[in-house]
Amino acid sequence: MTLIGWGSLVLQKPQNKFRNWINGQRPELENGIKIGTWNVRTLNKPGALQYLLDAIKKYNTNILALQEIRWPNDGNMKKDDKTKFYSGRKDGRYENGVGFVVSDDTLSKVEEFMAVNDRICYIRLTSHIFDSIIVNAYAPTEEKEENIKNEFYDELGHILDTTPNSCIKILICDFNAKIEREDVYRPTIGPNSLHDVSNDNGTRLINLCITNGFTLSSTYFPRKDIYKQTWIALNRITKNQIDHVMIQNKHKGCIKSVRSYRGTDADSDHYLVITKLKIRLSERWKKVKYIKSVKYDIEKLSEKKVLEEYIYKTQQELQKSNSNADEDGERIWGRIKTAVSINSSGQ
C-alpha cells in the first residue's frame, strides 16, 4: 500500500469487471458483508483501541465506520488482523475525527481511502462489476450553530455529487438526527423509525437524501425499539435513534438488515449499529450474454458483378420505403439499415 497525496490511500484497481461477471466469477460483495457504525466517543485513552478490536471480532464485522475517535491528522495503521484508516483535525487538536477499521479478509477489496476532514471520510471497495463507496460522517450536534451545520451538509453534498455515479454509494454515520414517520417523505424514509417527530438535524438529513436520491434504510426494518435505539442519555432513560444507514434508491435492495447491538459499550453513550450489505443485480444484468457481431466481407464488393447485384437489391428495398409517404423517419431508417445489412450478409 502506498500513500498518494494528502489524505488519500490508493490500492491497485482490478480490470475487466464486466467480463469477469460474464465468465461466471461472482463479485466478492455479492456474497454479503457486515458493515458497522459506532460513535466510540474517543480512542485517545489506554485500552480503547484493543476493546474496539475485540468488539469487531465478537460481531464479525468486515468494516466498521467510527466517529469521534479524537485522533489528530490522518493516516493508517495496522494492528493484529485489522487495518485502521483515520481522518482527524489538521491543527493537532484531539476533537471529532472519523475513520474505518477493515478486517484482513476485506482489505484486498479496498481500492481507496479519502480523508476529507475531521467529520467526513470515505472508502472505496471494488468488486467484479460495481465499486462501492462508503461515506462515513459525523454531523454536528443539534445545538450547534447554523453556519457549522450548513458547512457540514454543503461538504457532504459535494462529496456525494463528485464521487462516481457508477459506484454504489452508502452513507453510514452518526447524524445526531431523529427521523419522523411522516407519509409525506415516503419512500425516502420508511414506516419503522423510532421517533414521531424529526429534529432539525433529521429534517436536514431527509432533505439531503431527497436531493441526492438516497433511501434511509435504517427506518425500513420492523424491529423492537431496543434494536432501533442507537444512543442513550446519562439518565439511562432517554434513548434515541440518531445513527443511520442510507443507500441510493436504485440499490436499496442491497441493504438486508440494520439493527443496533447493546452488548458493547466501549465507555460510549452510543450503541454499535450493524448493517448487512449484499450486492444484487437485476435479472436483466444476470441474463446478459455476449452477442456475436456480424462481419461483412466488403472485399467482395471489389468484384463488379457482386457490386452491381448488391446495388440492385439495396435499391429495391429503398424503393419500398419511398412508396409509403406516411411512414415515419424511424421506420424508414430501420428499412434502410435492414436493406444494407441483409444484402451485405448475403454477399
TrEMBL record:
<dbReference type="InterPro" id="IPR005135">
    <property type="entry name" value="Endo/exonuclease/phosphatase"/>
</dbReference>
<dbReference type="GO" id="GO:0008311">
    <property type="term" value="F:double-stranded DNA 3'-5' DNA exonuclease activity"/>
</dbReference>
<dbReference type="Pfam" id="PF03372">
    <property type="entry name" value="Exo_endo_phos"/>
</dbReference>
<protein>
    <submittedName>
        <fullName>Craniofacial development protein 2-like</fullName>
    </submittedName>
</protein>
<feature type="domain" description="Endonuclease/exonuclease/phosphatase">
    <location>
        <begin position="36"/>
        <end position="249"/>
    </location>
</feature>
<dbReference type="InterPro" id="IPR037493">
    <property type="entry name" value="ExoIII-like"/>
</dbReference>
<dbReference type="GO" id="GO:0006281">
    <property type="term" value="P:DNA repair"/>
</dbReference>
<dbReference type="InterPro" id="IPR036691">
    <property type="entry name" value="Endo/exonu/phosph_ase_sf"/>
</dbReference>
